Amino acid sequence: MATVALTEATFEETIKSNDIVLLDFWAEWCAPCRMFGPTFEKSSDANPDIVHAKIDTEAEQGLAAAAGITSIPTLMAFREGVLVFNQPGALQGSQLQQVVDAVKALDMDDVRKQIAEQDGAKEA
Prior knowledge:
Layout: E1 4-5, H1 8-17, E2 20-26, H2 31-46, E3 51-56, H3 61-66, E4 74-79, E5 82-88, H4 93-105, H5 108-123
Parallel strand pairs: 1-3, 2-3
Antiparallel strand pairs: 2-4, 4-5
Protein name: Thioredoxin
InterPro entries: Thioredoxin, Thioredoxin-like_sf, Thioredoxin_CS, Thioredoxin_domain
Keywords: Disulfide bond, Electron transport, Redox-active center, Transport
């Protein structure tokens, strides 16, 4: 599956309607972003069950700001609508595959339980 371009208009629906979504926040002028691009594309081809989406931080400044992007490239991973990975910096292919494997292996019931416990601790 080829990567898709996400916009503010398509972001929420894409996250909600897919099991796993990897997001690459990038910009054309960013050399590390251009270096990471082919690695991200290869991951998209190797993992057709995962949505690989790119967000151009220049064109989608509001979305980048809402996501708290302060450095690019930044990779985010959502699983069942939950942000489970967020890291700036270009990854090598093997590192990206480790992230993909880890996200696939998550026990989402446990993740949701941990989030609920953290939310409960904040309220106390």
